[in-house]
Amino acid sequence: MNCENCGAAMKLVPGRDYFVCEYCTTFGFPAKSKDGVSVTVLGDVSDLNCPVCAVNLVPAAVAGHEVLYCTRCRGMLASNTNFGDIVASLRATYEQSDERKPRPIDPSEFKRHLRCPHCEQDFDTHPYYGPGNVVVDTCGECALIWLDHGELDVIRRAPGRR
What we know:
Blueprint: E1 10-12, E2 19-21, E3 27-28, E4 39-41, E5 58-62, E6 65-69, E7 76-79, H1 80-93, E8 124-127, E9 135-139, E10 144-147, H2 151-157
Antiparallel strand pairs: 1-2, 2-3, 4-5, 5-6, 6-7, 7-10, 8-9, 9-10
């Protein structure tokens, strides 16, 4: 897959279903992406920037709860309260039809350092302590969580109590 922005070859992001251009950092999402989480964009831009691509986040909704969403990398920023409600709602309505084995956490995910777009302090990067093997970025000061594209779907599909 070649980058739509600069034409360079894109690299598959390990353990994910999307690509990134290492030259210009554009993200590429195959048309058949299996991320089953629906995001509804609600408005124009917010004054907070995406911690990954530095573009303005936009107000959006997931499972009826407000988040800030990046239209470029498809990551999302949620309050801890909304995140908990989103996970509970998505897991309660998910019908396990395609059991996938959990993938192990890639240790390189802990090397990334992102900043909270609200307070500009470093996010804490750690494994998500619920179902699903994902590494999340959280800000304890602002009570926010950053999820990269696909991570919420991994949590939604994880085996365990619904």
